[in-house]
Amino acid sequence: MNDFMGRKVSYSSQMCFIPEESTNSVPCYRLLSTHGDLLDPSSINELDKELCIEMYRKMVTLQVMDTIFYDAQRQGRISFYVTTIGEEAINIGSAAALNATDVVFSQYREPGVLMWRGFTLQQFANQCYGNEYDLGKGRQMPVHYGSNELNYLTVSSPIATQVPQAVGAAYGLKMDKKDACAVTYFGDGGTSEGDFHAGMNFAAVLGAPVLFICRNNGWAISTPTSEQFRSDGVAIKGQAYGVRSIRVDGNDALAVYFAVKNARKMAVEEFRPILIEALTYRVGHHSTSDDSSKYRSVDEIEYWRTRRDPVARLRMFLQSNRWWDDENEDLLRQDLRTQMMSVLHNAESKKKPGLSNLFEDVYDVIPQNLKEQEQETQAIVGKYPKDYPSDVPLD
Amino acid sequence: MERDPRVCVLGEDVGHYGGSYKVTKGLAEKFGDLRVLDTPIAENSFTGMAVGAAMTGLRPIVEGMNMGFLLLAYNQISNNCGMLHYTSGGQFTIPVVIRGPGGVGRQLGAEHSQRLESYFQSVPGLQMVACSTPYNAKGLMKAAIRSENPVILCEHVLLYNLKERIPDEEYVCCLERAELVRPGKDVTILTYSRMRHHVLQAAKSLINKGYDPEIIDIISLKPFDLHTIGNSIKKTHKVLIVEECMRTGGIGASLRASIMDNFWDYLDAPIMCLSSQDVPTPYAGTLEEATVVQPPQIVKAIKQLCG
């Protein structure tokens, strides 16, 4: 029998090693040229004008929010920030293609997905300031957003831990036969973690309706992809796990949108995971604790920031179709800046969560030992108030 | 699993094989392959999956084939399982049960003889219990499944064969309560898991010699039931802890600190603690036996403590 544990084997007396590299790199799907021209002009009929405009508006919002929050950190107004500059198309393009009930497990460079779903600028600011309106109650560092209502799981810093978690959520969705999928985002660096391998493999075996979206932005802090893996990027890894995959131009919002839309359909209808590798570039530093000019050329950064900007690319497309003009642009950016200033001021002026938040939610009900520790802490802080921050209420 | 369709089991060989210690025997036939899920060999994967599934509405039970293997899942257990309820501001709960056989068996080798309860004890957000009899195993399992908190349920490799008559009907043990196994007035013996049985064996000899030990199976390893323990110490004024954990950083070490903090005034003698040595468990049977606290040691310790 030509059968081995359920698989057909074709035997050969010619010794043949599978090459480490294929002659052809995995093709990259794109709809817009780098100058915003539709590569297939007839496809304009499949595009929804309102949707395209809304996607663009949100991409600009994300860009402005990032710029202002980054500056706020530099000025000492917030303690830490992570920008998404250069990856707006992946964030918004993918978010627009998902349903509100799809459950999102992000890494930390995907606030655009939350933004698309309705998280307000004020809510972003509240979390970054850790004030009493922060849904996380001041317990996580900035950009670690989470919203049960918007089906966006709270960000947890360790790399790739969200990948198997998304598979778990997909497992639940499969059991309940819901018309929804799980979606997880991670960077090129995240694919080196054991959790990526574990999640992909298990999703394939299980037939879990989950999308694995990799933002291959070229850098994992200071590690370039050439030092992260030797494979032809990430899309090629799909087949090794039995997972259907696609490589897409991550700076082409329309391509990202359609790729994710199709992937989602397959995941939900066929109960299978899909891997999407979106090629892009991390224009900003890894975070406000990083100065990337130390390990990459300023010219490289500038090139991507000015010549390969996904926001500008979509704008060129919209403007060439007369769906957008300079006046719209100026109005939008001005309005956003005003909003952001007010949002920051607002967030800054709010109280911080009280001391009791230190001890709640560790368990569902506060246990005796934590009650005792809370009393001790309150007593110490009450006795030596000058040694503790004055803006944290004692209750 | 019958009562609540959200309860499911994930682990290696839990399905048709019934689990390495047959704990899940028959469940796959009854509830199907999806609810009793056989996983590939990736502890961090299926523990992560359980965390994600729990946050989105299921009540998963993760089986570590041996508790020691869950070290591979420590990232998910510590960084996510214990934390996400807190860091999400209470928006997401993680009602998982993580269970499996641990402790020193019969010549299973060092890697399969670990006492992970000491490693997990520090992790904020986790609750931890150790079962020791068929009665409390059933009650604690049910309580753990129904708890909204992530619970680690420590089972012991050598206790699966214990037989006991237990009620057919529903009952739930309290996750935070210690079990008063034998009331007494001379000395408080605190123990858990397999060592409960070694203590009971030693007790027979002690009672014959005229001692009256109060034996408490602490059950709840995190948090300690200081109410029950305290009441006992206030009565006897002497404490012996008998554990299988290593001396350094074990449950006993942490329990001693708690007792000192809370009941110092009631002690007539320093707290004694019998633990395993700080060595990897050897394979050779004779050496292995020397690393586990045996009944004669317990008898000797009580004589020393009580005079």
Automatic annotation (TrEMBL), chain A:
Q: Does the keyword Ligase apply?
A: no
Q: Which GO terms describe its molecular function?
A: branched-chain 2-oxo acid dehydrogenase activity; metal ion binding
Dehydrogenase E1 component domain sequence ranges: 57-354
The main location is mitochondrion
Q: Which InterPro entries match?
A: Alpha-ketoacid_DH_E1_comp, DH_E1, THDP-binding
Would the keyword Membrane be found if you checked this record's keyword annotation?
Answer: no
Report the enzyme's class at the first EC level: oxidoreductase
* Keyword line: Metal-binding, Mitochondrion, Oxidoreductase, Potassium, Transit peptide
Tell me its EC number(s), please: 1.2.4.4
What family name appears in the similarity comment?
Belongs to the BCKDHA family.
Subunit composition? Heterotetramer of alpha and beta chains.
Name of the protein in question: 3-methyl-2-oxobutanoate dehydrogenase (2-methylpropanoyl-transferring)
Automatic annotation (TrEMBL), chain B:
Keyword Nucleotide-binding included in the entry's annotation: no
Q: What is this protein called?
A: pyruvate dehydrogenase (acetyl-transferring)
* Entry keyword annotation includes Oxidoreductase: yes
Which keywords does this chain's UniProt record carry? Answer: Oxidoreductase, Pyruvate, Thiamine pyrophosphate
Coiled-coil ranges per UniProt: none
Enzyme class at the top of the EC tree: oxidoreductase
PANTHER family (UniProt xref): PYRUVATE DEHYDROGENASE E1 COMPONENT BETA SUBUNIT (PTHR43257), PYRUVATE DEHYDROGENASE E1 COMPONENT SUBUNIT BETA (PTHR43257:SF2)
Matches recorded under Gene3D superfamilies: 3.40.50.920, 3.40.50.970
* Gene Ontology molecular function terms on file: pyruvate dehydrogenase (acetyl-transferring) activity
Q: Provide the cofactor list for this protein.
A: thiamine diphosphate
